[in-house]
Automatic annotation (TrEMBL):
This is TonB-dependent siderophore receptor. Keywords: Cell outer membrane, Ion transport, Iron, Iron transport, Membrane, Receptor, Signal, TonB box, Transmembrane, Transmembrane beta strand, Transport. One of its GO terms (molecular function) is signaling receptor activity. It is found in: Cell outer membrane. Residues 1-39 form the signal peptide. Belongs to the TonB-dependent receptor family. Gene3D superfamilies: 3.55.50.30, TonB-dependent receptor, beta-barrel domain, TonB-dependent receptor, plug domain. One of its GO terms (cellular component) is cell outer membrane. It is a multi-pass membrane protein. InterPro entries: Beta-barrel_TonB, Beta-barrel_TonB_sf, Plug_dom, Plug_dom_sf, Secretin/TonB_short_N, TonB-dep_rcpt-like, TonB_sidphr_rcpt. It comes from the Bacteria.
Amino acid sequence: MSRLIINSRLPGMSAGSFRKLLLATACIIPLVQAMSAAAQVPAPSYTFSIPAQPLSSALVRFSSVTGIDVLFNGTLPAGAHTQGLSGSASPEEALGRLLARSGLSWRFQGANTVVLTDSAATSAAASSGSATELAPIILTSETAWGPVDGFVATRSATGTKTDTPLIETPQSISVITRDQMDVQGVNSLNSALRYTPGASGDLYGTDNRGLGVQLRGMGTGNSGVFYRDGLQLKDSNFAMFNAIESYGAERYEVLRGPASVLYGQATPGGLVNYVSKRPTEEVLREVEIVGGSFEHYEGRFDFGGPVGNDDTLFYRMTGVMRESSTQIDFVDDDRLFLAPAITFKPDEDTKLTVLGQYQRDRSGWAMQYLPASGTVSSNLFGKIPNSRFVGEPAFDEYNNTLGSVGYEFEHHFNDVWQIRQNARYVWLTHEEQGVFGGGLQADGRTYDRYADGGSTNLQGATIDTQIIGEFDTGELAHTLLAGIDFKRHHYRDYASSGNVDPLDIFDPVYGSPIGPMTPYRNTETVQSQLGIYGQDQIKLDRWTLTLGGRYDWAWGTARDAVESDNNVNMKDDAFTGRAGLVYLTDSGLAPYVSYTESFNPITQAGFEPETGRQYEVGIKYQPPGSNSFMTVSAFDLARQNVVSHSGPGGATISQTGEITSRGIELEGVASLDSGLDVRLAYTYLDTEVTKETNGDSGAGTSDVGKTPFGVARNRVSLWADYELQNGPLEGLTIGGGVRYVGKTWGDDANTFKVPSYVLADAALSYKKDNTTLSLNVSNIFDKDYVASCFADGFGCFYGEGRRITASVRVTW
């Protein structure tokens, strides 16, 4: 990996469909080869496309292109800026042009190392006798999918599908790094999102399925908001992929706002991209033992490195085995997770990575449907415990087995053109059955119940082929992206329901018989989508303009053997666009403005495709000389033909005309040399239903002007941890955080409110040599709180109480 070293601080598809896709890919490759041959210009060494920017980031770009390390002994001149470099040049010529008028000189120290010096600063320091030797800082040319040191990521491929600095991306993106997850003891998508603005993972409280993700006030349900390595993991009506083991993630990237231009069918609130751990070129060995609350026992391992003595073949194997109960009585949360990966890199221009995954979950319903009386509001008989189980221990279960295999291929034809292709096949089998609340009787303690069960079998395939070119036209520097993607998913959902006796919710006695189960759904669904998209990131001096467009064709069928009137033939197509403008300043400020759209076809009888659009303005700030990043944004987001899921398992599906969400987000994150990590997030949302589909406002059934359930107007969170850098306790880290979530409406009719709550978390760890001892506590004060309600009688969900986790991690 190239680096800049500074001695001071520095800023199952059908055969026919598959043949069509292969033909399209086959047509693209020769076209790119012809373009690349035409684009080749005789050059002494390298082709550069470095726009005007701060000198430090320009030198990182130089280093990444040439593979030459840059060493600087001193302090970079304040506000050092370069006019950029475009075209072919030798390393010597490139350095001369980049450093022009900077006052810096350079010399080669070996074939792959350049030393920069500031003659004036060095002379002044020598004459005053005040020269100080500082510890070197290594600023790596961080890749879009690679590991991040600390909390602060500077690059992401989620926002543009190119290796683009976050400060140049005209949309809000949060990156939750591996280091942050380790310090905070993250064990799920829900907990990963706790300190992220505009995002929430606990809409349904203790739900362990990842169903309760909410982005910018838009509940995502099981609508395919979850991506892995840039490829969508499409859900069925009952089963979803959101709960993939978080230990297997290098990081989570949260893109807020519509993203259909790059990703096809997607909800306008945004998406969550799970970035997998990839093979490492250096030897990695890690074993961890975890234990904690709710009889939690877990073993983890993570191994990687070269295969034997081969410098072209690398591997990674990550695994988790867990046996655990949960906060809810009689509900387990057991898991087996394996993620093998291998990379073949025959040369610097070609790389193939194969990624696999197997996950087996055996659990129950960690989310319990409870009444508002006894949870949100008072009840004559007291408060319902947050561990209350309203099902039947011998009957309830929620089991998933899922797997995937895919690859990422990239080849650089030259310094201008490259081609990439990512593909994945997924499969999932799912079985569930449970007993759920149906409403509290007039006596205030007898709780009506019903039984529900179902299964899903799903197979899917996605392939995405991209061409990327980096070149100049006159004064303009371009990063051009053109792509074609195809996805096909086939799944069968089966569901049935039955009767079961009521339960005394304050003094439950289990063992009631389950009545005969009557099928109410037996649906076979096939969904396909083909998309062609293009994007150009155009740089002129300090300006970066991003333009993108996409055309999608979506088609599918849904055949229900139980209710024939639910049979659907769906065929939709749409164009979506995107535009954004960023201005980079010497001070690290980058104001931006953007507009983007989304398109999400729905395979339900009588449902229109969801569409969305968003206007966003903001300022990003990356202070020179500091490893920190801040974003302030304001947005106006509209979502038309909104599909919402309610009821047990999200099985009740409805469509609303339009929901508009306007808000402000603030995010600040820093990892400082002193050992301090900080993450601050604030979200303000004004969300309401602005248009009805078939409601009758005259009859009083319209929800226009109402706020959807579970949307808090204000959310604030602050996390900080500090690692002692010297002394007898060197390696000790102390951290903590506070989370505030404001009041939410308890139903879409806005008839009652769920109270706000404040939670506190803490972390303590000690690292000595290759061993790390950690202790994490979430919800320190064991506060009972309701995360949300969607109905008064049976739709309230407790959040998680105090969880204590201890671990021992050994690396070698």
